[in-house]
């Protein structure tokens, strides 16, 4: 599939993911796996494709089941890589997805293990985008509030 087609498809899935029923239908049709694979393959792609891939994962990750599936399918590492993108719009969507993933203790641990903390701190300190800074700060706050990550780290 051409890059522009993938970008349009990811954008359509992102838009559809704002609805609860659509989120579940996308996941049931293999959308989580497909979007994680897209995120894994688009680090050198256009910022538009990167933004939409991360945005679609952000939208799907609102659902706890989808959030767990994204983590299990290997979606944390590519989202961290996208958070390091040169494009501000990509920062916002990647940080937003990481924030949603951080609600789950297993995903919070994956974010730490995959090197996400330095990427999120960097966004908090240097992103031009207020939204990216806010999303990164929220992800860090949820990861380190003591209720979720500390029991896993101390077990």
TrEMBL record:
Pfam families according to UniProt: Arm
Signal peptide bounds: none
Keywords, sorted A to Z: Repeat
Transmembrane segments: none
SUPFAM superfamilies listed in its UniProt record: ARM repeat
InterPro entries: ARM-like, ARM-type_fold, Armadillo
PANTHER family named in the record: PROTEIN ARABIDILLO 1 (PTHR46976)
Protein name stated in the entry: Protein ARABIDILLO 1
